[in-house]
Amino acid sequence: MNEDDTVGTYFLPISLISSSGDTGFLPTFGPCYINFYGSTREYSDLPDEFDDLNMGKGEGVAYRGRALLELKTKLGELPETSIESIPDDDLLKIQKYLRRRNYKLHAAFLSATMVTCIDAPVEFEVSIGNYGNKLDSGVAPCSSTTQPTNAVFDGCHYYFLPWSGTKPCTVVDSAWEDISFRLEALNLLLKIVDSLESNMERVRISMRTKLPLPELAQLLISMLDELLVDLKKPLPQPEKGYHLENDLDRNMQSYRKVELQEIIEHVNKVRENATDINEAMVEVESVLQRIKNLAIEPQNSLPDVVIWMISNEKRIAYHRIPAYEVLYSANPNYIGRQCGKVQSIQMKFPGLKAEKEKYEIPTLLRVKLWLGLAKQEDVWHKNQTEGELAVFAETYENQVSILGSWTDGSLTMTRPKFSDVQGKISLPKENFVPPTGWKWDGDWYINQELSLLYDKDAGHKTYLEDMYENQSRIPVGTWGLNKQPWTDVVSDQ
């Protein structure tokens, strides 16, 4: 990799950081971090199919880093120099924006079906930024991956991971700036959009089924009443001592407040003056679009949550989830739409392969995700009432087979006697020490890989066996059956 190679791209549309009209404002941004995404982090000297992701051509599949950015627009003459050093006073002013708080990202994996990787064990990695990424040595290690498990045939067409009653859970510790007031406002607006779209669909279905006009009118009025209640919910405000707002935050708050008030007045007029269902639905559609335009947060410095499916130390498929979707808040109106809820995730291949094999599903995950401050972690544990949480210390014993005998003392042994799953880090059993206040519930025991409980032919209804006929002959003679006429490919009977 050279110094001028592009490793990530970020687009910042001017329309998201400015506004027109009487209440408009010139483009402004930050101080706030922007996050870069690009290709997978397994570097290669030769170009690969993922290089275009670094240029912003397609969805980036890996977090690349972040940059602190501030942008201001001033009217007047052009500056004499295009690049200037940042004054020391400005460097001191931005220090207050760099304060971080500790976050916890929890994931509970319920099932993994339609798995396409069947030749090697499969594991899933959960990360946010660099935290949780197995390739990153700059952050503390954490329990961000599931146990490698071989896929098992389901008896029909697909393969699944046999987690059975023991569901793997991961937890990622991270530290980020507290921008919850921005993301909570976004979550509130997104929930209003979802609720309105659901109610509009209900009205459309009623119109197609030709319900009587009085019933249609009642549905319309109920939808508008519910919308008015949602629109009057207060937007979250920055809390002094915890949050720091900048010029764009203040401009966005003023802009949203004015827009929401105008939308409320518009909805009231539609409610009072509507005489035709179709015309009223057109007006509601315009209201929906105005709310969608408000449900955008340009200063989202919290990186996305990324889930990777890994097999044979290769990253096969991924899924990116915006952090605000799983962000917890003490106010139910501000909680992320997928926070702590079971969601079905259809993972996809990275880069061009996603388009080439768009009809192939790498795997279908059912998982629960929760992101919140470390001090709020008890909320996650209290909500997990479907089972008992157990924490294990895990190490892998390595041996080699010599002349049919297994041993760990051979010179051909390339791994430590006890190690991590990849055999790279030595993990002797006696080196495990429980955290302060914890104690072991039992002694070490051998925990077989889950797929070993299933026979290799489990679930299959048809089988194919290879058999080879062996013949021999002497020079100038004819072919005849060998002493062992039928064997496998290595001549074993």
TrEMBL record:
Which part of the chain is the Ferlin B-domain domain? 298-373
Membrane spanning stretches: none
Q: Which UniProt keywords apply?
A: Membrane, Repeat, Transmembrane, Transmembrane helix
Q: Which residues form the Peroxin/Ferlin domain?
A: 388-447
Where in or outside the cell it occurs: the entry states: Membrane
Q: Which GO terms describe its biological process?
A: membrane fusion; plasma membrane organization
Q: Which domain of life does the protein's organism represent? A: Eukaryota
Q: Where is the Ferlin A-domain domain?
A: 205-271
Q: Which GO terms describe its cellular component?
A: membrane
Task: State the PANTHER family in the record.
Answer: FER-1-LIKE, SPERM VESICLE FUSION PROTEIN FER-1
Q: What is this protein called?
A: MYOF
- The organism named in the record is Acanthosepion pharaonis
